[in-house]
Amino acid sequence: MIEIIAYILLGIGAFCAIVGSIGIVRFPDVYNRIHANTVVVVGGAIVMLLGASVLEGLSSYTLKILIIAFFIFLTNPVSAHAIARAAHKSGVKLWRRSVVDKLEEEKP
Amino acid sequence: MILEVLIIIFCACLICALRAALGPTAPDRVVAIDALVVLMISALVLLGVYYRAPIYLDVALVYAFLAFLGTLAIAKYLEGRGIET
Q1: In angstroms, rounded to a whole number, what is the distance separating the alpha carbons of residues B20 and B29?
Q2: Which residues of A touch B26 (CB under 8 A)?
Q3: For B26, which residue in chain A has the nearest alpha carbon?
Q4: Does the complex come out with an ipTM higher than 0.85?
Q5: Nearest residue of A to residue B1 by CA position?
Q6: Contact partners, residue A53, CB within 8 Å, separation at least 6
Q7: What DSSP designation does A41 have?
Q8: How many A/B residue pairs have CB atoms within 8 Å?
């Protein structure tokens, strides 16, 4: 029973990883690609780490895997925000069919 | 099962590396390499579970921390360059 749950979690993680990677290649500009990057991290990697920890049972591995998952879960929004802000400040254009840019309107 | 998941992760890494090689601007490459690093961390953890070797988990933890610092450093560099020019 435990192994079935772990394999289901690993399958969901692998599916989200491959779908997010295709999204990183296919999306039109940087800001959409950051969205696909979040799919890879939260839907792919963290679910796979949870599946690995469930597969491992209760041991010293489980604590380390959960620490890694929590660390990735904390640091991914920070790095995504920093990259988006840096891209906007260094003058990367939005996709031509994007409709709103609040940060551009905020500029004096 | 773990080996099939590792093969799928390898295919996803190849697709991310394609975007990192093609990307027209620098933030594209940074985003692609960030996703690639996270996929490699999950591959390291799965290898550690498969081979019963806890050293892989320590390597994955340090790798996650260094990748986060590297992404923040590159973001800071890009932001500064945008202000100068």
Answers
A1: 4
A2: 90
A3: A87
A4: yes
A5: A7
A6: A61, A62, A65, A66, A69
A7: I
A8: 153
Residue B69 sits at the chain A interface (C-beta within 8 Å): no
Q: Do B78 and A91 touch (CB under 8 A)?
A: no
In Å, how far are A29, A45, A74, B30, B44 from B25, measured between CA atoms? 10, 25, 26, 9, 29
Q: What is the CA A6 to chain-centroid distance, rounded?
A: 20
Q: What is the pTM of this model?
A: 0.90
The tens digit of pLDDT for each residue in B13-57 reads 999 999 999 878 889 999 999 999 999 999 999 999 999 998 999
Within 10 angstroms of residue A25's Cβ, the number of other Cβ atoms is 15
A86 closest CB neighbour out of B8, B13, B79: B79
User: In a structure prediction context, what are the per-residue pLDDT tens digits for chain A, which is 108 residues long?
Assistant: 889 999 999 999 999 999 999 999 999 999 999 999 999 999 999 999 999 999 988 888 899 999 999 999 999 999 999 999 999 888 888 888 888 888 888 776
